[in-house]
Specification:
By secondary structure, the protein is α+β, with helices and mostly antiparallel strands. Helices cover 21% and strands 37% of the residues. The strands form 2 sheets. The protein has a 4-stranded antiparallel sheet. The two termini are 19 Å apart.
């Protein structure tokens, strides 16, 4: 990836992800071609934190039924769960150094 600003698309805000932030695990949607190393470098540069571990997974497609058949509601996305080293945390997601 050339631009670190395009690696992290948005943070996921759900009950499960906000519970993980207490333990230092941040969940975000990332660019489909980004690797674990790209995500680690983006967090280090943009937020100034040290990353311990990055887990990456692909979400599945979701469908719903209509009168005319089955329609796609949500496509495949790539999600990263980033574990920060102890003592590091991101206070405000919108502020980028």
């Amino acid at each position: 990836m050339n631009c670190l600003y395009s690696v992290i698309q948005r943070f996921v805000v759900t009950n499960k992800s906000t519970d993980g932030e207490v333990q230092g695990v941040y969940t975000c949607m990332i660019d489909p071609v980004a690797t674990k190393i790209d995500v680690k470098n983006a967090f280090r540069t943009l937020y100034g934190v040290e990353v311990e571990k990055v887990n990456v997974l692909h979400t599945r497609e979701k469908f719903h039924n209509t009168k005319l058949g089955v329609a796609r509601k949500k496509g495949i996305e790539k999600k990263a769960m980033v574990t920060l080293r102890s003592g590091h945390k991101i206070t405000n997601f919108e502020v980028i150094k």
